[in-house]
Write a structure and sequence with these properties.
Elements lengths: L1 E7 L2 E7 L3 H12 L8 H21 L1 E3 H11 L3 H7 L4 E5 L4 E5 L2
Antiparallel strand pairs: 1-2, 3-5, 4-5
Helix pairs in contact: 2-3, 2-4
């Protein structure tokens, strides 16, 4: 059993995890590999597909205002993709009269 106690902000945390021998072996293998916090490759794959879909959405449209783009992206995975597009090298964001306008600038 592994017990974690502490605080997240002002909220107290008291968590007990029960690990069987297989779980401990996997945890030990991760620690021995020197990458304890790295996500497994299959977990990252769906996010990359969503990211590619978000880029393709804007690329196909050429440009979209922020609210319209956000509505499209929320249907895919939420606001996180909009923030990621804002910082993408192929995307230029300009201030529109009511909302930012995202341009595919490749």
């Amino acid at each position: 059993m592994l017990r974690i106690r502490g605080h997240i902000g002002e909220w107290p945390v008291d968590l007990s995890l029960e690990l069987d021998d297989e779980d401990w072996a996997r945890l030990g293998a991760r620690l021995a590999a020197g990458n304890p916090g790295a996500p497994a490759a299959p977990a990252a794959e769906p996010v990359d597909r969503l990211w590619q879909t978000a880029q393709q959405l804007l690329r196909s449209a050429g440009q979209m205002d922020g609210p319209a783009l956000l509505n499209q992206l929320q249907a895919l995975a939420g606001k996180r993709l909009l923030v990621r597009l804002r910082h993408c090298a192929q995307v230029r964001v300009e201030n529109g009269p009511d909302a930012p306008i995202y341009h595919w600038a490749e």
